[in-house]
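hey m, so remember when u said the tokens were messed up on ur end? i reran from scratch. heres the input so u can diff it against urs
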Amino acid sequence: MTRELLALTAADGAGVDGALYVRSGARAATALIFMHPTVSFLHHYALIPLAERGYAALGLNSRFAGNETQLLIDKVVLDLAAGVAELREQGFEHVVLVGNSGGGALAAFYQAHAEEPDRPLADALIILNAHRGRPQVLTAWLDPSVTDESDPLSVNPSLDMFDRRNGPPYRPDFVERYRAAQEKRNRRLTAWARERLESTGDQAFVVHRTAADLRFLDLTLDPSDRVVGTYWGPDVRAANYAAVGLGRFSTLRSWLSQWGLDTSPAAAEPSLARCHLPMLFIQGTADQGIFPSDAQALFEAGGAEDKRLNWILGGTHYFLGQPDLQREVYDLMESWLTARHMPAAS
């Protein structure tokens, strides 16, 4: 196995880091690219196993890796374009975007706009345990009981998911009010960000309590094989009130680009609707942050005639400690790509 460290340059001159894994002596025909807007995928769990099967596997970092606070979606797309262009220049016959977790909406957004200059097309799209977009996932996790954005302890008891009088289990009327209040909070923050940006210019700010999806505690909502808790553990309240979390720190420009429901272009479903290349959707049924309704919505949104949805029974978000299920994912990818004349090696 060889790993080539790549120093790429995006169209606007920004530096982009990548790690390309290939099997020694193999001539790969198909290259797969993994990228997340903010998480480093240079050591993604699937890179070496897929390279061992004969694929070229590229883990690519955006310029905002480890720096969610300042992320701008339009810049991340340029970074992904640099990776796709590199694989084309190296002569691989097929390039496949693998959108894992937050990378799913990114890959769809990229492909949907790939007809623009300097945006080389991919040949297939694999959506793996991916959410519906950054604005959508943050809104689903926002705590709508916050009454004062400057006070992390402010609470409206009638919208507090941790108030035992509300549940769990949560009544349908409470769920409806809760979801509406989550969207209202997102739009309130967006309106404030717009106004503030116009009056003062960009600035940093904090968004308190962003781990409050009702599905974290109530397993009857969007039923699956998951256990109670979040990616950070079983104590949902602790995750929600923690000093760090999803979207906790932002700038005004970044909020409008990546988190605002009405301002961010990062929603996965509209992008997928514009994509017509072959699509494979893979979803673990024990994922604690991406639920069956999310995977189904993404699959139904896909604009391709050639699309397939596969469930990995018992699979968690990154299949940690689940090597057999990881192999099931690799087997599925390999058989699906081979059937579409995109073999690992030429």
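this time it looks ok to me. Residues 2-133+266-339 form a domain with the Rossmann fold fold (CATH 3.40.50.1820). if urs says something different then somethings off w ur setup not the seq
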